[in-house]
Amino acid sequence: MTEPEPRVLPEATLTRLTQYLRALNAFEAQGTERTSSGVLAKEAGVNPAILRKDLSLLGSYGTRGVGYVVTELAEHINRTLGLTRDWRVAILGAGNLGRALSGYAGFASRGFQVRAILDTSASIIGSDVGDLVVEPISTLGEVIGREQINIAVLAVPGEAAQELIYALAAHGVNSVLSFAPRPLRIPAGMIVRRVDLSTELQILAYHAVQS
Predict the structure, then answer these.
(1) Count of domains for the chain
(2) Residue positions forming the annotated binding site for NAD(+)
(3) CA 171, 173, 179 angle in degrees (round to 5)?
């Protein structure tokens, strides 16, 4: 008998799972052993009915009248999101953004190890960024192999991002977070999440003038 195909969760559900996990981690830090859907939903900023629907997609992990065991639910969401794996990150671009990202404590606390930072500028290569030394982009393949990189963060100008996307794909890195301010052509099999800060600010400005 063949195993069923794993369920592909909707993007909105995936986003909310990260919110539930953040709330559950806070509960754990406070020593809370159990929580209800109402309390968890409030801490995550969602409707309880939506929370119950999201968690039903993962299986039945709550008990009516008793609620959820915090550690068990957090562990299950971690497994669902792939956070029990070893994620080793390379940051491409050692400018202000790349340096700020390399020092972000939230990566390590969520299981993402920043193992390398690379750049093209001769004036930056060889400088220290925290515990890392900026390495040349020309050694990308070597760095990926040495550090077993499986996620890349693009903190480079738009014109450089496309070439790096192809280079990453050629070296087997298929998960990319891009801060490049332009759409990119994505090779088959690669997943790219795009963060456009200017777009987010423009949307925020719109909502500000409407209020």
Answers:
(1) 2
(2) 93-98
(3) 120
